[in-house]
Amino acid sequence: MAKIEGQCREVCNETEFVTIVTNGHDGPHVVGNWGEYMRALGIGDDTIVFPVARYHETEKNLQSDSRVQLLVASKKVPGRLKPGQGFLIEGNAHISTSGEVVDRVKSRFPWARGAMVVRVTAATALL
């Protein structure tokens, strides 16, 4: 069953920015990426790919704990009570620096050193 569907997909298609949280030795580590970059690489039913330039701390964290949380939101998507909807997307991720997905990322984003591939396990509406 698709994890990224309905209103969650609408928000992913409209979000300007994605907050990415990994768990490090010293606690949560937060980075971001542009929604436009996520969309350019295609959002699957349960997979999201991001281009990676630096993300060295994120990569280190994912090597010991692959869990990741993404926060996406958009005022363009109606919420339950007012304009705006957000989703917490949870999953497991890894950063690849070679292979087909990295070739695809680098063809679109020549500055990228790799790709972060997120396998989505849950998506929960927040607003």
List its salient traits:
127 residues, alpha+beta, six-stranded antiparallel sheet, 4 helices, 6 strands, 47% strand, globular
Written account of the structure:
This protein is an alpha+beta fold. It has a single domain (6-125), classed as Pnp Oxidase, Chain A, CATH 2.30.110. The protein is 26% helix and 47% strand. The protein is built from 4 helices and 6 strands, in the order H-E-E-H-E-H-E-E-H-E. The chain has a 6-stranded antiparallel β-sheet. The radius of gyration is 14 Å and the shape is globular. The chain starts with 5 loop residues before the first helix and ends with a strand. The mean pLDDT is 95.
Summarize the structure.
The chain has helices at residues 6-14, 35-40, 56-64, 100-108; strands at 17-24, 27-34, 47-52, 67-78, 83-96, 114-125. It has 127 residues and is α+β, with helices and mostly antiparallel strands.
List the helices and strands and how they pair.
Layout: H1 6-14, E1 17-24, E2 27-34, H2 35-40, E3 47-52, H3 56-64, E4 67-78, E5 83-96, H4 100-108, E6 114-125
Antiparallel strand pairs: 1-2, 1-4, 3-6, 4-5, 5-6
What is the first-to-last residue Cα distance? 23 Å
**What's the CATH C level?**
Mainly Beta
Rounded to the nearest angstrom, the radius of gyration is 14 Å
Overall 3D geometry? Answer: globular
Helix content: 25-40%
Count of individual helical segments: 4
User: Main β-sheet, in a few words?
Assistant: 6 strands, antiparallel
Which structural class do you get from the secondary structure elements?
A: alpha+beta
